[in-house]
Amino acid sequence: MSEHIVSPKIYLGIFAALMILTATTVYAATVDLNEHFPGLNVIVALVIATCKAILVILFFMHAYYSSKRTKLIIFSGFFWLAIMLALTLSDYGSRTWDLH
Amino acid sequence: MQAQLPFYPDQASNFAPSVDALMTFLILVSLFFAVAITAAIVFFFFKYRRKSENEVGYPIHGDMRLESLWIIVPAFLSLAMFGWGAVVYVDFRHAPQDTLDIYVIGKQWMWKIQQPNGRREINELHVPIGRDVKLVMASEDVIHDFYVPAFRVKMDVVPGHYNTMWFRPTKAGTYRFFCSQYCGTNHAVMGGWVTVMDPSDYAAWLSGSSGTDSPLVAGEKLFTERACVTCHIGNGSGRAPSLNGVYGGTVRLADGSTVTADDAYIRESILVPSAKIVAGYQPLMPAFQGQLTEDQILSLTAYIKSLQSQPIPATGAGVLTTGKK
Amino acid sequence: MHRTGDLYGQFETLEQQKESATLGMWTFLITEILFFGGLFLTYTINRHTYADVFSFSSRTIKLSWGAINTVVLIGSSLTMAMSVWSAQVGKKKLVTIFLILTLILGTVFLGIKGIEYHDKYVEHHIPGASFDMYFCTNNPGACNLTTEELAQERTELKELEDKVGGPVAVNAHSQLFFSLYFGMTGLHALHMIIGAGLLLWLIVESMRGRFSPRWNTPVENVGLYWHFVDIVWIYLFPLLYLIDRH
Amino acid sequence: MSTSPTTPAVHQLPEEHYLNSTYGLRSWLLTTDHKRIALLYLASVTFFFFIGGIFATMIRIHLLTPNGYLVTPETYNKLFTMHGVAMIFFFLIPSIPAVLGNFLVPLMIGAKDLAFPKINLLSWYIYLVGGCFVLYSFATGGLDTGWTFYTPLSSVYSNSAVTPAVIGIFINGFSSILTGLNFVVTIHTMRAPGMTWFRLPLFVWAQYATSIIFILGTPVIAITLLLVGLERMFHLGFFNPALGGDPILFQHLFWFYSHPAVYIMILPAMGVISEIIPTFTRKPIFGYTFIAASSIAIAVIGFFVWAHHMFLTGESTYAALAFSLLSYLVAIPSAVKVFNWTSTLYRGSISYDTPLLYSLGFIGLFLIGGLTGLFLACLGLDIHIHDTYFVVAHFHYIMVGGAVMGYVGGLHFWWPKITGKLYPEFLARMAAVILFVGFNLTFFPQFILGYLGMPRRYHNYPPEFQVLNVMSTAGASILALGYLLPMLYLTWSMRYGKVAGPNPWPATGLEWRTPSPPPTENFDVTPVVDWEAYDFKNRPDLGLTQPSGPALSPAHGDD
Ligand code: HEA
Ligand code: HEA
Ligand code: CUA
Ligand SMILES: [Cu+2]
């Protein structure tokens, strides 16, 4: 079986990136970004978390080197999560919209 | 709409004919498919029955034209059902202006109803023919549901939320109403009678009422007792927006969005003011959550609603349009 | 089904077996995504409704512990990844060492979590009958807070009361936050504990020299699981600790 | 009418097969053989069907008179709740997947077992543990929340044994998840040489689609019910408005699983029908790819429609519009299946064997159930019929008339494979007809009751509804008889039935290419597949000749 072996160098690089991102997110939380744009603090925090998650999935979990099928499965997990969040929030978000 | 089948209950509101017509349409579409498919099955079943033990059927693998046909035709029929259903539903969810507002509170296992002049009823509801009636509904415990089959209307009554529904009675008589959301032991007996009366009879009935304060009067009292007046000054000179003409209008919020000031908005503004801050004002208002009963909130809302008719000096920066038409 | 060497009877080849195991693990992990997803949805809706209380409650958790734990957990992911690598290249000793390191870091994480839970216990922030957001401000000295911190908390509480409608509401809604906090971190910790159990098993097997370049599926699959648990934390950290630190 | 062979071949049971290869209780309780696990499931789901059926019988007896004389209101509420819980979570959801799916998926794709046999056994044990919790809750105070567990009724106000019940369903969820996981992996990696995706039997496609829902939906109900349990035990407020929570959020989470779950119940039955119809018409199924693709489409789109159960909770009007439109979208693939099955009958060589009778019954009843689903998805109409007996009739038509019919039909179809014995054909046909008649008499009046305005979950009702209720109860007694019969003669046939031989119908699937009952390892040699699914024409091994009828014009020929 042609199995891809990821070298420790890459692992260390990813680890470093994750550390930097962690520091960034802690720092970003202490700055008031909401005054520039409402909700920006949350958005930044979530974008950073997502970057970290993607790095972990792609490299620590080898998704980058896996078959299309595995990628599809991973994708569908997050896609279904998105369905659940988006459709439910769409109800909450549009309750007060005007009907005229 | 005359389309009445024997199993259609009395039609006593503006929604009854539209819902029944919709029903008739769906029955026809369904009959078409049910009959066509059943007939085909029965016909093939006898026509192609196995004649000799070792016989095989004729190998047909499919047909693109047929497949597209039976995707497209149901798709179009679906759209028709959806569209028609949507029209009725949107009408139902969107009450007209100038309704007769009746307050309904559900609790395990009874309905408390209060007429606009304060007359209270339990498990009974009196309404005049021809008036647009809006029920403003709250629950004190679990989810209930107010259902009048003869009107073809129902709506859940959800604790912590404000649901409203409206209808226009069209036929005098008494009709059953039910609680149609399962709410515990006596769910099945949590019902009563709706009496539809001529407007004059209704007026007479109302005036024979007991002496309790109408929600409006009670609300006005509360507005003073709870010191709402100290901030909400009628001419808008206070720290808070004037509430004159707010109800039913469009309010601009601090974050730039707009909302319609309906019952739910007023309720929220009182309970959790910080949820939606009116543009141009500070979030000063104390929250009243846990300090007002559902009854009191209904009364306050009724009072705020009545402020429509007063002169509108609204300098309230948030007020875009008023509910007054 | 009997087993020949590393090959279970229902499979034809080792390759097929490995493919199945990996696929199975990933499939399991996406069920986990949706499992936590239900909690995330509950969190999102409530945080939106009670933004102020949530940000206040979030500030009563110690940021430093959360940040340290993030580093610890990501570190353990690194050592886990390294042990997979060691198995793949056949360094049997290293496999064991890295597995032990991972276990240690995991335990440190859980230990810190324990300290945090204990703090919350002392502060009466555990949802239930004795929950009281005002405990620390009403009982100076009972909590591990400086006078300035207490004063700060007092003013913040005062502001909050005006916004949301008094102490009853503050308590109710912050209890919601802490219910979610304990629900989410508790479930995460439970996953960590299961992961630690799996690591123990791997360490024993690996000391027996079971994992080779030819066959190391268990290491790899436990690795996938461990990284997944890491990812959950990567989201929990900003959502619970970093709501409003400015 | 009978099509039994003129010169019946004399068959003998194989010397050693999965049933007799090992003996003793241990060999069953610790088995990892998917076929034996399927039988363990068969016994346990039948048990729960019994329990649910007894509750149903009591419901119907109670409703004979407007004021109900059998039980107190409280007990009545417990009856329908426990009926729903037992039937849905412990009977219908596991029924076809865990019994027939478990038995057949490896056989159909030519594998020796599922990919993870031990996990398969584990799922059964998890199911048992979950079942015990639920039985415990039934026995100690019962459960009166409705199977939907709406908050805050379930989390605060109910005095019944909600906590053990939600824990039981929570645990049971993992059984579903593991079964789904096992199927997905098995279907991906364990197919025999030559068994390409588009040669898979449609039953396998249906199981695959079902597994998607198992995997992606079940975790959400698990966490939701866990939260309800926690809320109850520790007085938390996730869904309790008095503590700031939101009851509507519970409904979103609940239906995010429970709507797709209805497709868990119907898709496998559709798979069964797609096997039976080609076999008893002896021709390839009409529109193979469309049927396969529609299974996947139903599984996926089925996740987008859940809030059609919430049109009248005060959900946003816009959301209601979207969810209604999407509900219609999911009806299209179901329609595709119905049309394709019907077309398969055209120019077939149709025999009147029991499984086909069940299948045709399935189509008719599913059709009515599905079409009335369109009434409910219609926003304007749902205002009136939501939470009335119209809904009750809708879902019984689909779940009892559809899914259970499919399950019983499938049991008959594969009974010779499972036990090696034939069931008594005449009795079986009778039972099918009794079921069909009894079923319609029970549930058709409920549509009318619903439109007349009788709300569901009512232990008493206005007197004007009595006639229809009596009809329904009468039908239910016929229905009970219809279920009793198969239980009796199937059990009888295990011992006294005629020996079936490897392929009694004959059918084309791989499962019929191994002895009945199959050996523990399923196949003596790994099969190699070089034919298309349901290809009777090119299968000399089946011993069938060409039709003697006139040849068709080329326009209709094999494409
Ligand atoms: C196996 C179970 C199952 C299945 C498969 C379905 C299938 C469908 N269901 Fe049903 N449903 C339930 C079980 C099921 N349901 C249950 C248990 C409840 C009640 C839960 C509770 O509250 O306790 C319920 C409730 C329910 C509601 C909520 C009612 C209410 O409470 O107010 C709605 C509303 O949209 C709905 C719609 C549908 C639709 C559109 C389909 C569609 O998938 C049907 C598709 C099939 C067809 C349409 C037939 C074939 C089509 C043709 C022959 C062609 C013609 C077609 C067109 C013109 C489009 N169902
Ligand atoms: C798979 C699911 C399933 C199945 C198979 C059934 C089967 C049946 N159901 Fe049920 N039903 C539900 C799922 C199901 N139901 C659900 C989800 C609800 C909603 C619950 C809620 O509101 O929360 C419901 C609710 C429900 C109601 C509405 C209660 C109410 O709202 O007040 C009624 C009323 O008639 C009913 C009747 C029946 C009947 C007569 C059968 C019959 O088909 C059963 C026939 C079977 C047997 C009788 C057992 C087998 C027979 C024998 C072993 C023979 C010997 C026995 C005797 C002689 C008694 N069901
Ligand atoms: Cu109130 Cu049902
Ligand atoms: Cu549904």
What does this structure look like?
The complex is a heterotetramer of chains A (100), B (325), C (246) and D (559). With 100 residues, chain A is mostly helical. Chain A has helices at 8-30, 40-60, 68-94. Chain A folds into two domains: 1-62; 66-94. Chain A has three helices and no strands. Chain A is flat, with a radius of gyration of 18 Å. Chain A starts with 7 loop residues before the first helix and ends in a 6-residue tail after the last helix. Chain C has 246 residues and is mainly alpha-helical. Chain C has a single domain, classed as Cytochrome c oxidase, subunit III, four-helix bundle (Four Helix Bundle (Hemerythrin (Met), subunit A), Up-down Bundle). Helix content of chain C is 78%, strand content 2%. Chain C has eight helices and two strands, in the order E-E-H-H-H-H-H-H-H-H. Chain C has a two-stranded antiparallel sheet with strand order 1-2. Chain C starts with a strand and ends in a 5-residue tail after the last helix. In chain C, 50% of the residues are buried. The model of chain C has no long low-confidence stretch (mean pLDDT 90). With 559 residues, chain D is mainly alpha-helical. Chain D is 64% helix and 0% strand. Mean pLDDT of chain D is 91; it is low at 1-7 and 552-559. The chains are: A mainly alpha (100), B alpha+beta (325), C mainly alpha (246), D mainly alpha (559). Chains B and D meet through helix 1, helix 2, strand 7 and strand 9 of B and helix 3, helix 5, helix 8, helix 9 and helix 10 of D. The complex binds heme-A (2 copies), dinuclear copper ion and copper (II) ion. Residues 50, 53, 56-57, 59-60, 80-81, 83-84, 87-88, 91-92, 146-147, 392, 396, 399-400, 404, 442, 456-458, 472, 476, 479-480, 483-484 of chain D line the site of one heme-A.
